[in-house]
Write a structure and sequence with these properties.
By secondary structure, the chain is mainly beta. It has a single domain, classed as Pnp Oxidase, Chain A. Helix content is 5%, strand content 46%. The chain contains 1 helix and 10 strands; from the N terminus they run ββββββαββββ. The strands form 2 sheets. Strands 1, 2, 3, 6, 7, 8, 9 and 10 form an 8-stranded antiparallel sheet that branches. A hairpin with a 2-residue loop joins strand 1 and strand 2.
Length: 151
């Protein structure tokens, strides 16, 4: 007899294809989001009278990589470029960015809150005369930390 899943007690990982990105208060549709990582730099230390001939490692300053987001190119959609134009010497428009992984009903189940984000790189679509793909542009944002909220 086949299992219809109604008596299933197992916990399954969330699918990663249903997500939402909010910049400030507006929602933007993206094809792909990557780079949601954070790490603590290791500090190696050894005091002079240590009986061990090796260093110890302690957690140091936390650092996070850039977040890369890809989306389709649409007519008169210049949101990336408008935000990038606001970068001037030591004057940057920083925005909060919220990335949410959604469940089957559209409710956020895991939320990454990105603090003080600003665009550091935009890559326009490549163009090929023999291609038949959609035009995709990429933005890299730099930020000052990620916090995670589980629903």
């Amino acid at each position: 007899m086949a299992d219809d899943g109604s008596k299933q007690n197992a916990i399954w990982p969330l699918p990663k294809f249903y997500f939402q990105v909010k910049w400030d208060s507006q929602e933007l549709a993206f094809q792909e989001v990557s780079g949601l990582d954070i790490e603590a730099q290791a500090i190696e230390y050894r005091h002079g009278n240590s009986p061990q001939f090796s260093t110890i490692k302690m957690p140091g300053i936390q650092k996070s990589g850039n977040i890369t987001m890809k989306k389709g190119v649409f007519v008169k959609d210049n949101k990336f470029w408008d935000w990038f134009k606001q970068i001037k010497m030591n004057t940057i428009k920083r925005l909060p960015v919220t990335i949410s992984l959604l469940d089957e009903t559209g409710k956020p189940t895991m939320v990454w809150k990105v603090a003080n984000a600003w665009p550091s790189k935009i890559t326009a679509t490549d163009m090929k005369s023999d291609g038949n793909e959609a035009a995709i542009e990429t933005i890299e944002i730099t930020h000052e930390g990620i916090t995670i909220e589980n629903g």
